[in-house]
């Protein structure tokens, strides 16, 4: 994970955000182009700990799709004309995030959810993890596998996360944490790390965040 984060970052950036669609929201019997064609925005959800916001651009990302195959159907969009699953995913990423450095990997094998994997899934999932039009008439069975779409992404949204973290740490009264400094951390080192965190946050700033950053600086 460390090496992947380093690969996706440049210009002083060090942090990436994690996203996942678990399961990947594909109807049973639908092809990958059909599924992606219905999503104007990416179908994954944020796993990192900050208030989720729409991400319309990113600097770099690595995306993995597993358990989905390309099915031959009459072309209705540019996605349907791609020759392989890898090309479909790459075409989709370049369309949603134009100009971003995107790498993608496709694995045929789905993610196994056999015991002891917790069964917290909706009854609208088939045993293979695909969405059903309606709940099955028979008693539900355990979901045995899932198609998954996951991503590690370096994006401007991390500017907000890191600024919030900086503000939270800045407000700490270090005099109340004597044991923290008794462990060997010097006050000067703490302040230096805090300033490095603020500098790191600025590395993710784009023109869209410029006004917010000025407001943050004024409040500091």
UniProtKB/TrEMBL annotation:
One of its GO terms (biological process) is mitochondrion organization. GO terms for cellular component: mitochondrion. This is MSTO1 protein. It comes from Heliornis fulica. The lineage of its organism: Eukaryota, Metazoa, Chordata, Craniata, Vertebrata. The gene is Msto1_0.
């Amino acid at each position: 994970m460390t090496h992947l984060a380093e690969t996706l970052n440049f210009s002083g950036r060090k942090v990436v955000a994690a996203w996942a669609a678990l399961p990947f929201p594909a109807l049973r019997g639908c092809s990958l182009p059909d599924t992606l064609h219905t999503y104007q925005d990416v179908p994954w959800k944020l796993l990192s700990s900050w208030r989720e916001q729409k991400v319309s651009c990113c600097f770099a990302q690595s995306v993995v799709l597993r358990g989905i195959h390309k099915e031959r159907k009459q072309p209705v969009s540019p996605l349907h004309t791609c020759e392989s699953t890898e090309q479909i995913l790459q075409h989709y990423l370049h369309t949603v995030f134009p100009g971003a450095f995107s790498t993608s990997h496709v694995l045929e094998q789905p993610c196994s959810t056999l015991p002891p994997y917790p069964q917290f899934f909706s009854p609208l999932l088939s045993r293979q993890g695909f969405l059903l039009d309606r709940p099955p008439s028979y008693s539900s069975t355990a979901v045995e596998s899932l198609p998954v779409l996951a991503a590690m992404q370096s994006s401007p949204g991390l500017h907000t996360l890191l600024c919030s973290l900086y503000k939270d740490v800045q407000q700490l009264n270090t005099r109340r944490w004597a044991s923290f400094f008794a462990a060997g951390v010097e006050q000067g080192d703490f302040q230096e790390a805090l300033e490095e965190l603020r500098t790191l946050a600025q590395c993710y700033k784009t023109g869209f965040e410029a006004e917010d950053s000025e407001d943050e600086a004024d409040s500091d």
